Task: inverse folding
C-alpha cells in the first residue's frame, strides 16, 4: 500500500511537470479517431476534464469508487453522458480515456514503474466511463419507449357512436394494455356503441398479438360495445389461419371502410346515393 | 344488513348497485329481484354496476345467474356501466359473463330492451296471424 502511494506520488509529479505536453499530445491522439467531429478547443477542454479526474485519483487514494473519487466520478459521468447523447460510439468514448497510457509512455523520464501505477487507474476510469455511457444510452431508450407508447395510441371518432383505433407498429403486452385501457375509457366517455380496431399498420400477427386483440374485443363486449377488427392484409389472414387462431363470432373486415359501413348499418344508418340532377 | 333497491319503471326493473356487494347482499338481491319480476310481471331488468370498482368471480356468477333466472321468468337482463378496469380484470380472469347482455349506459339498455320486446311482439303477432290463416 505504501509502495503504491509512493508510486502515485512519482506519477503525480511526472504528470504535473509535463502538464502542457500531456494535454497537447492527449488531444492529438484522441482527435485521430474522431475525424474532426469535435473542434480542437472542445476536445482540449474535455481532455482537460479527464486529466483533472486522473490527477484527482492519483492525488487521492487511487480508488475511483472510494470516498475521495467523488469529484473524478462526477467529471467522467458528465463527459460520457455528453458523448453518449452526441452519438459517439462507446469505443471512442473509452478511447478518450485510454489514450493517456500511450501519451504517458512517450513522456521523457517515464519509467515502467510509473506506467504500472498509472495502468489500473486508467483502466478503472475507462470501465467507469463505459458503464456510464451504457446507462445513459439505456435511459435514452427508456425515454423513447415511453414517448412511443404515448404517441402511438390515438382513439379517433369516425361517426356518432363509432370510434376507431388505428394500430401502428408491433403490439407487445405493454402497448396492448395501453391501447385497451384507452379504447375502453373512450367508449365510456363518448358512449360509442361500436369500436373498430384497425390493424393495417401491424406488421405481423402472431398468437400473442391475436390474444391481445381478442382480449380487447371481449372487454369491450363486456362493457356493452361491439368491436370490429379491420385492416387484415391477405398475408396476415393466411398467418392467422395457419396458426389456428379463432376469431369466433367477432366481425372481421378487410378494410377500415368496410368496417365503418358495417358499424353504420348495424347502428341503423341508411345510405342513399343522391340522384344526379339532369 | 344492506339491501339493494329494485325500482320499477314501466315494465322494466332498474337495479342500481351503489355499494360494494358482499356475498350475502348479492344473494339477497338475487332473491329480491326474482320476487319482484314475478310480482310486477316485468319484461326487462337493467342492472347498473357503474359504481362497482370490484367485480369478483362471485359477483360475475351472480350476474349470470340473475340473467338466467330472469330469462326463465320472461325478462331480458342488461348489465350497464361496467368500468374499463373491471372489464379488463374480468377478461384477465377469463370470465365472460355468459348469457348476460351488456350496454354502455341505461339509455342504450332501454333501447336494447325495447328492440327485443318489439321483435318478440312481432313474432307473437305473426304467429297469431298464422293461426288465423
Result:
Amino acid at each position: 500500500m505504501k509502495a503504491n502511494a509512493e508510486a502515485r506520488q512519482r506519477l503525480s509529479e511526472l504528470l504535473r511537470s509535463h502538464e502542457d505536453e500531456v494535454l497537447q499530445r492527449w488531444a492529438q491522439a484522441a482527435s485521430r479517431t474522431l475525424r474532426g467531429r469535435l473542434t480542437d478547443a472542445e476536445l482540449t477542454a474535455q481532455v482537460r476534464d479527464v486529466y483533472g479526474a486522473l490527477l484527482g485519483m492519483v492525488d487521492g487514494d487511487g480508488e475511483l469508487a472510494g470516498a475521495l473519487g467523488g469529484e473524478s466520478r462526477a467529471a467522467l459521468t458528465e463527459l460520457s453522458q455528453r458523448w453518449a447523447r452526441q452519438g459517439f460510439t462507446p469505443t471512442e468514448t473509452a478511447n478518450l480515456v485510454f489514450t493517456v497510457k500511450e501519451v504517458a509512455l512517450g513522456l521523457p523520464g517515464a519509467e515502467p514503474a510509473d506506467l504500472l501505477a498509472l495502468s489500473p487507474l486508467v483502466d478503472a476510469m475507462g470501465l467507469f466511463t463505459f458503464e456510464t455511457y451504457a446507462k445513459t444510452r439505456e435511459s435514452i431508450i427508456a425515454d423513447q419507449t415511453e414517448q412511443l407508447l404515448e404517441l402511438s395510441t390515438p382513439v379517433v371518432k369516425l361517426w356518432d357512436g363509432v370510434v376507431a383505433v388505428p394500430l401502428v407498429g408491433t403490439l407487445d403486452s405493454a402497448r396492448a394494455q395501453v391501447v385497451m385501457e384507452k379504447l375502453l375509457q373512450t367508449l365510456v366517455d363518448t358512449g360509442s356503441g361500436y369500436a373498430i380496431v384497425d390493424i393495417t399498420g401491424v406488421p405481423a400477427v402472431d398468437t400473442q398479438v391475436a390474444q391481445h386483440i381478442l382480449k380487447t374485443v371481449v372487454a369491450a363486449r363486456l362493457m356493452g360495445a361491439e368491436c370490429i377488427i379491420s385492416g387484415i392484409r391477405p398475408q396476415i389472414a393466411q398467418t392467422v389461419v395457419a396458426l389456428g387462431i379463432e376469431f369466433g363470432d367477432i366481425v372481421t373486415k378487410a378494410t377500415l371502410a368496410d368496417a365503418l359501413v358495417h358499424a353504420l348499418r348495424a347502428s341503423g344508418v341508411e345510405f342513399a346515393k343522391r340522384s344526379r340532377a339532369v | 344488513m344492506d339491501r339493494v333497491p329494485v325500482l320499477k319503471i314501466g315494465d322494466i326493473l332498474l337495479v342500481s348497485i351503489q355499494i360494494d356487494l358482499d356475498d350475502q347482499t348479492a344473494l339477497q338481491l338475487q332473491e329480491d329481484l326474482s320476487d319482484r319480476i314475478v310480482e310486477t310481471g316485468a319484461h326487462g331488468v337493467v342492472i347498473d354496476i357503474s359504481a362497482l370498482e370490484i367485480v369478483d368471480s362471485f359477483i360475475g356468477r351472480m350476474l349470470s345467474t340473475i340473467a338466467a333466472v330472469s330469462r326463465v321468468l320472461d325478462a331480458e337482463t342488461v348489465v350497464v356501466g361496467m368500468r374499463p378496469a373491471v372489464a379488463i380484470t374480468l377478461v384477465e380472469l377469463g370470465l365472460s359473463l355468459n348469457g348476460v347482455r351488456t350496454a354502455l349506459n341505461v339509455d342504450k339498455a332501454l333501447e336494447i330492451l325495447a328492440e327485443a320486446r318489439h321483435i318478440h311482439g312481432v313474432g307473437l303477432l305473426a304467429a297469431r296471424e298464422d293461426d288465423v290463416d
